[in-house]
User: Fold these one by one.
Assistant:
Number 1:
Amino acid sequence: MKVYNTLTRQKEEFVPIEEGKVKMYVCGPTVYDFIHIGNARPYVVFDTVRRYLEYKGYEVTYVQNFTDVDDKIINRANKENKTMQEVSSRFIQEAFHDADGLNVKRATMHPRVTDEMDLIIQMVKDLVDKGFAYEDKGTIYFDTKRFPEYGKLSRKNLEDLITGGSERVSIDEAKKNPTDFVLWKPKKEGEPSWQSPWGEGRPGWHIECSVMAKHHLGESIDIHAGGEDLVFPHHENEIAQSEACNGAQFAKYWLHNGFITVDNEKMSKSLGNFFTVRDIAAQFPYEVIRFFILNGHYRSPINFSRDLMQACQNGLERIKNARKELDFYIQNAVNDKMTDEEKTQAVELLKYKEQFEAVMDDDFNTADAISVIYELVRFSNIAVKAGVSKEYAVEIRDMLSHLCGVLGIAEVSEDAISDEETEKIEALIAKRTEAKKAKDFAGADAIRDELAAMGITIKDTRQGVQWFRG
Ligand code: AMP
Ligand code: ZN
């Protein structure tokens, strides 16, 4: 299996540190508002990476943090006359609500900065003791000149940053070098703070991930991931902190998702060009949002538009309909057993699985994986039309649900309809069939409408009336 490593700028064979196990850390959101669809991308993409690694037999420990100490949370709390804790707790719940809707599996751990404060202070202290950090009036800075490999991830040259300047390197008189960054800052009036050897204060942003990764996964991890905007300075700084403190390589593979853009500009809160997942979910089902994200390769940009969402909804429906039609066909198939010819064809089904795995093994190409699923859908539709045996249809259905399951898409809920409801639906369908026989078309249409009001769609097929929710 090959993965693109931002650290080396090439696809590399994936070999975890410990055989059969993967330790994975993904930077999570700052919880001051609902997540937008750009924030949802790393959620869905790295959930899929995790699912695929599990599918390949790895035992994955997946850590995703919540940043629950931050200026933006404090500002919102002050505006709403709430505590920082009240604001962050609310938006952690909201983030879980969206993640559940997007079929993102819960991480093994979801640590929060406020629960890790002692360890954060300890790591800052270690960095000071080892000579990698210095103090100026209660602020602790990381001394980037003391870490010669600084810049190795983003490939930024320290000298360029100093002379050219960058919007992401803040100018601060107290810093020894422009790339130095804050590990700890002194308390400001009216802001939450914690006691430390340098007085009351709170941590800078980057230190939390170095601490949480070490605490929950150890000094060296296999995969560290996030959006590409985090490469510099966040991930660069995480490497500096962790490697300076621990004297070991921090992460073996660095994976970064591309942006979701609007009119080819990054979607972001600060530009105001964002759509929250919650708002989009009011117009399209959550599963369409997941499908939309997986339709592109995770490193390519995706330009968000209603038209593209609509096209994705249609595509997903095509896959789900094929699954429902197979289910219906299996219930009503005339021939049980596979013919000899079908037995030969059934072996060919494996080629879809092989193709699927080949593209996923090539840096998680979910876009091509979905194309393979579409091909299988076409194959399935032809088989159903040709009137294959039940046994063969079951094989096709199992392959389709197997591949969809790996991506967490097109799940058809079988448990949603109770026996009682099924009886009622089937009674109505029988009544409609009677009405049609009696040429009472208005009566038949009225029953169709009644079923539609119950959320049930019906379809007249050669095998009889097919029905499903949706
Ligand atoms: P934030 O809360 O801004 O730190 O973002 C949380 C995660 O979403 C990070 O991994 C970001 O890189 C990612 N992210 C933010 N905006 C976008 C975007 N427009 N497209 C893709 N990923 C994004
Ligand atoms: Zn991080």
Number 2:
Amino acid sequence: MNFHVLTLFPDMIIQGLYTSVVGRALKAGTIHLEAVNIRDYTLDKHKKVDDYPYGGGAGMLMQAQPVYDAFRAVRKSVYERRGEVPLRVVYLTPCGKTFHQDMARELAREEDLVLLCGHYEGIDERVLEEIVTDEVSIGDYVLTGGELPAMVLVDAVSRMVPGVLGNQVSGESESFCKNLLEYPQYSRPEVWRDKRVPEILLSGDHARIEQWRLEQSLERTSLRRPELYESWVSENQEYFRKKAKREERMRKKEEKARKAAQNACIL
Ligand code: 6GU
């Protein structure tokens, strides 16, 4: 997977991403990242990339020409490597569709992904019309530029690329826990400030531990993200049917044991 980030602040992208898990994947060559400085493509003799908006208003706009030429340079190198394939170009903007795990998963299937970061009050609409295929926001708040959102997107998409998370389980668990919040986790020591690790986690009973974790996830999700919980419940009716059956079986078994004990007393 190759990320091409068009930005006025390439150092910010490189510094932010050459760290931790994504940094390791970059160094290992599992994913690739280039940060293209839009300013390098301006034809203005003073290296200017912005200008006042027509019609007035606060701030400056990024001009079309340097953005377009930076994009064309990236597209040319992709075309030389792969032929004239269709290219996804994601513009990071608060006006975009809100970023979501499904989007990360879908974008991870692209071999090349171009990310366009705006700054100032935005970018001349004409170049956006010309090159952008997707507009993405990372949430309902306003940032000063698209660099942090681009880094968020690169991180979330990278961890969906096979090999980035190493040999631990894949970024997308196929199990029941999908689309639920994480269960609580504990590491050594067993007691910290009088707080014990939940006993079940020390039991070595993997089936019961899995069951406990799922229940913790469900409880957390229902309390903190009721809308996620509701959609999980409607997509996992089978889980509740099995749980009800399991509980019914347990009840019958206990009832039988109780009766047997009673009979034993009578005899
Ligand atoms: Cl993608 N850009 C900016 N500037 N602000 C944002 C955003 C993007 N997503 C949330 N806030």
